[in-house]
Amino acid sequence: MYDVTVVILNLNGRPFLHDCLASLQQSTVPVEVVVADNGSTDNSVAYLREHFPRVRVVELGKNWGFADGYNRALAAVDNPWVVMLNNDATLAPNWVERLLAVAAREPRAAILGGKLLFSGRGDGTLMQSAGAKFTDSGAAFEIGMGIPDRGQYDRPALVASIPGAALLIKRKVFLELGGFDAAYFAYLEDVDLCWRAWLAGYEVHFTPEAVAFHRYGQSGGGRTSPFRIKWMERNRLANMFKHLEPASLARALVISALYDAYRILEFIAQGHLAGLCALATGNLAFWKDLRLILAERARIQRGRRISDRQLREMGLLVPALTAFREYRRLNQLELSQES
Hints:
Elements (H helix, E strand, L loop, with lengths): L3 E7 L3 H11 L7 E6 L6 H8 L4 E4 L5 H10 L6 E6 L2 E3 L3 H11 L3 E10 L8 E3 L2 E4 L4 E3 L14 E2 L7 E5 H6 L12 H11 L3 E12 L11 H18 L2 H25 L2 H16 L1 H13 L5 H6 L3 E2 L1 H19 L1
Parallel strand pairs: 1-2, 1-4, 2-3, 6-12, 8-13
Antiparallel strand pairs: 4-11, 5-12, 6-7, 6-11, 8-9, 10-12
Helix pairs in contact: 7-9, 7-10, 8-9
């Protein structure tokens, strides 16, 4: 009998599956392992059945995206805790054990994660995430991204969000929140879920002793991918409208317009025509879904248990200038790695 199910959403990720699943075989607590296949065409399912016969395979039939793919996968799971794990990520043996220990002593902890380090870069200490912070623009930025881990992230903390690459969630809360918003398809669906959890009165915890490794960008695309730009734009706007209180939203609309204007100028300077088209497509997708987003906003705001002011005081919702500085830093970091 298991308390934890690890669900790996897979789409043509056969090259990564061995390392991912092998890491779970070293877990210090027993876990059920489920691979939900999003319509792979690379023989992933046949590979799993031949080499990992104890892994339960759920064939979803087609690519439902990250958000609805996990919604459908979790419908086949009944254990009280669920790990969502990217196929290009691996867990340290005690990752699950460490997080369950925190959950046992923190009754409001519904979503938990630990240090997420870049796999295959440098000496293995380069941070991807020590949790994340919400921004007024509706996005989030990962704490410590691209910075060597020298012990500065060794304190447990409440964080706004945990990246969906390696996340532990109480299944009951996932269902209570309505799961992922299927309209997000990809990107920021983890931020949306964590934001809804905070507004509903739950907590999101960062536990540094739980360490995972991630081949960042291997399963999706880089920061300048048109696919990423489109869905990040659509989904950050949805987050703004769904989660911010009226006064915060009014300020955020001005911030959002300035942010988009900056990005338009940036893409023009770079000659990134595909980026401009993706930004426009993302905006159009948001406006197309506005009626449904506003209905979601009404439902979320009726049930909110914490104010934007409280989130700001806790350091979970940060000012626009802080977010913009981080955006610039990450762009410069990416350019320096390419040169």
